[in-house]
Specification:
By secondary structure, this protein is an alpha+beta fold. The chain is 21% helix and 47% strand. A hairpin with a 3-residue loop joins strand 14 and strand 15. The longest helix is centred in the first third of the chain and has 19 residues. The protein is extended and about 90 Å long. The N and C termini lie far apart (135 Å).
Length: 480
């Protein structure tokens, strides 16, 4: 009996040593050979935003299972996912949705099916909006209150509710109430009557105004910089106007860094001083390019942009292009207008030299243009003077001079300016000349160009349409 007892003790000791890592073990003995379980979730009965929200919530819950979920883990997820589906539908107003679940298992593949019946969405029964404080009689806040975006009978969604709250902040801050806050923000969901009640109370606080605007030292005249400011001293302080100022300075092309610091804590008599720190970009920018074309042979280009010549933001750019058959040079002198973001005056000079097998042409063009932007439209009024000497085949050399005004209207509306999926552009051009203006030809030309883009069958497919309509009327004597 003593020997048996000792053997048992020795076995237990060895087991303990192996389990604690004191004894070498074979790696093959501890290596997991269990195959990875694959889980697929299938939804029906919902689409678009609702489906995306359900999938997102279920994927988050599935990720918590880890890389090697057990059968028990998957079954538990299958049972609890029904509640996750319902929670994902509630932000869209569906609090009584029905969810039917089905589980299929084959080998290591688990398929979870959820059939959703949305039922009726909950609707607003009462919307109570109050505005307290010095801004309670503000015209825009009162208009917002009377035309509040949430209406009785409208389907409740978290998005529309949050948007309504944000709109109250936006209108208050745009009118100078920068310390406005919601003292009551409440949504009551009554599942018995299946109605929602919203209570929102905005306390405006005191109204603030724009104070002194101070720029750091830059190469630009301070009066010129003030043209970019969309507000004046003493106007109600607005965060939207601050963002617009940043956008205006950024779009000018003069600055690499823009810092706008409203000194709210330093406000006196509720007038907020604005400190603006600007770092100018390099004054010169050069671009060199080259290529090859079957009609031009080797070709090259050089561009020089002198971004600011003087303290008033005048700029100069020159582009030179050349090949064996085409040569051109263009120089433009650009003067910002009283509103430098939306107005420009441009003087330009261009020279062309074209040499083809049967045609030679040399031309020069001087132009003055005024460009302005209003809403989404760009308008250009230009006066052009064109001189040209050309020969065609064996015909004698011909001289031509045309002085003609031109008018152009252009607009672009698109969901994405870089990669649009839906939108359109419209370009309207009208130009003409008369012998009474020392031109050698009478002509009138009009052209309308419309381009449109729209999704086709799926978001990844696009249909692009283009249409042109034009009119030319020319009357000239034989040119000598």
């Amino acid at each position: 009996m003593r020997r048996v007892f000792c053997c048992l003790m020795l076995c237990l000791a060895l087991s303990s040593a192996i389990g604690s890592g004191l004894w070498p073990t074979s790696t093959k003995a501890v290596k997991s050979t269990s195959p990875k379980q694959s889980i697929a979730i299938h939804l029906s009965g919902v689409s678009d935003d609702l489906k995306a929200n359900v999938e997102s919530r279920l994927n988050i819950a599935k990720a918590q299972l880890g890389k090697q979920p057990t059968t028990a883990d998957i079954n538990m997820f299958y049972q609890t996912a029904r509640d996750e589906v319902k929670k994902a539908l509630s932000p869209f107003g569906y609090f009584k949705a029905g969810v039917t679940a089905k589980l299929r298992h084959s080998g290591n593949q688990w398929d979870l099916y959820y059939q959703i019946k949305l039922g009726e969405a909950i609707r607003y029964q009462r919307i109570q909006v109050k505005i307290l404080g010095p801004g309670r009689s503000n015209a825009q806040l009162q208009e917002l209150k009377h035309r509040f975006p949430l209406k009785r009978g409208q389907v409740f969604t978290v998005e529309t509710y949050n948007n309504a709250k944000q709109l109250m902040f936006d209108v208050a801050q745009h009118n100078g109430y920068i310390k406005a806050r919601l003292t009551v923000k409440q949504v009551d969901i009554d599942l018995k009557s299946y109605r929602a009640t919203v209570r929102l109370t905005l306390k405006t606080g005191q109204r603030y105004f724009f104070g002194t605007i101070r720029f750091n030292q830059t190469p630009f005249n301070e009066k010129f910089l003030h043209r970019f400011i969309p507000f004046k001293y003493g106007m109600p302080y607005s965060t939207q106007d601050i963002l617009k100022l940043h956008e205006n300075l950024s779009s000018s092309g003069y600055f690499d860094e823009i810092q706008i610091n409203p000194k709210i804590q330093s406000a006196r008599n509720r007038k907020v001083p604005i400190d603006i720190h600007l770092k100018t970009t390099k004054p010169h920018h050069f671009t060199i390019g080259g290529g090859y074309g079957t009609d031009t042979g080797l070709r090259g280009s050089f561009a020089w942009d002198w971004r600011y010549l003087n303290p008033y933001g005048h700029r100069l750019n020159t582009v030179v292009q050349g090949s064996s058959v085409q040569k051109s040079v263009q120089t433009r002198y650009i003067i910002p207008g009283a509103d430098p973001v939306n107005q420009q005056y441009i003087f330009s000079a261009t020279g062309f030299d074209l040499n083809y097998d049967r045609t030679d042409s040399r031309a020069g063009k001087l132009a003055f243009a005024y460009i302005s932007h209003h809403n989404s439209w760009q308008r250009t009024i230009a006066l052009n003077a064109l001189w040209e000497k050309f020969t065609f085949d064996t015909q004698p050399k011909t001289d031509s001079f045309i002085l003609y005004p031109a008018f152009n209207w252009k607009t672009v509306k698109a969901d994405d300016p870089l990669n649009p999926k839906r939108g359109y552009s419209l370009n309207i051009l009208l130009r003409g000349s008369s012998k009474s203006l020392a031109s050698k030809v009478n002509f009138l030309q009009g052209r309308i160009t419309l381009r449109a883009i729209t999704p086709l069958l799926s978001p990844n497919n696009r249909l692009i349409l283009r249409g042109d309509v034009g009119y030319n009327a020319i009357k000239s004597d034989k040119l000598n």
